[in-house]
C-alpha cells in the first residue's frame, strides 16, 4: 500500500495531465475531422488514431532504450511518428482556434501539455532503477579478464587474492541488495567460475569481514 500511495503521488498528477490534455486534443482533432467531411464514427476514429499513435510511438521509444537498440539515422522511426502525431494534433488545435495570438496559444496548450506529460512518463520509465547496481551487472557469470583466474588448488592454505576477494564482495553485495538475502556457496561458485574450495574460502572471508 505504501508503494502504491507513493506511485500515485509521484505519477498521478502527470497521468491526470496526460488524460486531460489528451481529451482536449482529441476533441479538437474530432471537430477538425467533422469540419472536413469525416462525419459520424469516422471523426472519432481519426481522433483516436492521432492520439493513440502518439502513445504507441512514445512506448516504442521506451522499448528501444530498454533493449539498447541503436539509431540508424538522426531520428528513429518511433521518434518521427511521435513528432508527426504531435504536429498533426497541434495543427488541428490551431485550426479550431480564434485567429489571434491568445487564441492560438490557448488552443495549442492541450497538444503541448500532452507532449510534456508523455515525455515525463517516458523519462521516468527509462530512468535508472535504484535497486540495480551499476558496478556488477547480474548478467556477469565469470571473473573479469583483468582478474587472475585462480587454480583449483589455490584454496588449500593459500589466501585468495585481494582483487578476487573484492570482486566476490561486490557480487555478494549485489545479490543481497537485489534479493534481500546472503548469497549461497553454490551461487557464488557459479558466478565466479572458481572451485568449490576457493568459493568456500571467499565466502568465509566475506562473512568474517
Characterization of this structure:
The two termini are 37 Å apart. This protein has seven helices and no strands. The protein is mainly α. α1 (2-35) crosses α3, α1 packs antiparallel against α4 and α5 (162-179) packs across α7. It folds into two domains: 2-125; 133-209, no CATH class. Keywords: Membrane, Transmembrane, Transmembrane helix. This is DUF2637 domain-containing protein. The chain crosses the membrane at residues 7-29, 41-58, 79-95, 101-121. It holds the Pfam family DUF2637.
Into which percentage range does the β-strand content fall? under 5%
Shape: elongated
What would you call the structural class?
mainly alpha
N-to-C SSE series?
A: HHHHHHH
Ranges with pLDDT <50 over ≥5 residues? 130-156
The major beta sheet can be summarized as: none
> What is the overall pLDDT average?
75
Our Rg estimate from Cα atoms comes to 27 Å
Report the end-to-end length measured between terminal Cα atoms. Answer: 37 Å
Tell me how many strands there are.
0
Helix content: 55-70%
Please tell me the total number of domains. Answer: 2
Number of helix segments? Answer: 7
Organism: Streptosporangium lutulentum
Pfam families: DUF2637
Transmembrane segments: 7-29, 41-58, 79-95, 101-121
Protein name: DUF2637 domain-containing protein
Amino acid at each position: 500500500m505504501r508503494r502504491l500511495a507513493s506511485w500515485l503521488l509521484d505519477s498521478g498528477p502527470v497521468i491526470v495531465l496526460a488524460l486531460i490534455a489528451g481529451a482536449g486534443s482529441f476533441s479538437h482533432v474530432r471537430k477538425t475531422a467533422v469540419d472536413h467531411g469525416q462525419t459520424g464514427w469516422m471523426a472519432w476514429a481519426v481522433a483516436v488514431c492521432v492520439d493513440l499513435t502518439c502513445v504507441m510511438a512514445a512506448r516504442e521509444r521506451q522499448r528501444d532504450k530498454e533493449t539498447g537498440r541503436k539509431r540508424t539515422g538522426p531520428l528513429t522511426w518511433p521518434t518521427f511518428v511521435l513528432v508527426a502525431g504531435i504536429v498533426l494534433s497541434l495543427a488541428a488545435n490551431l485550426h479550431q482556434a480564434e485567429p489571434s495570438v491568445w487564441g492560438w496559444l490557448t488552443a495549442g496548450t492541450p497538444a503541448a501539455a500532452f507532449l510534456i506529460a508523455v515525455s515525463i512518463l517516458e523519462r521516468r520509465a527509462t530512468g535508472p532503477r535504484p535497486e540495480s547496481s551499476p558496478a556488477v551487472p547480474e548478467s556477469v557469470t565469470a571473473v573479469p579478464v583483468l582478474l587472475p583466474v585462480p587454480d583449483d588448488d589455490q584454496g588449500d592454505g593459500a589466501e585468495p587474492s585481494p582483487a578476487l576477494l573484492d570482486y566476490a564482495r561486490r557480487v555478494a553485495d549485489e545479490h543481497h541488495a537485489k534479493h534481500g538475502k546472503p548469497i549461497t556457496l553454490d551461487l557464488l561458485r557459479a558466478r565466479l567460475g572458481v572451485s568449490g574450495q576457493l568459493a568456500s574460502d571467499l565466502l568465509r572471508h566475506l562473512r568474517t569481514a
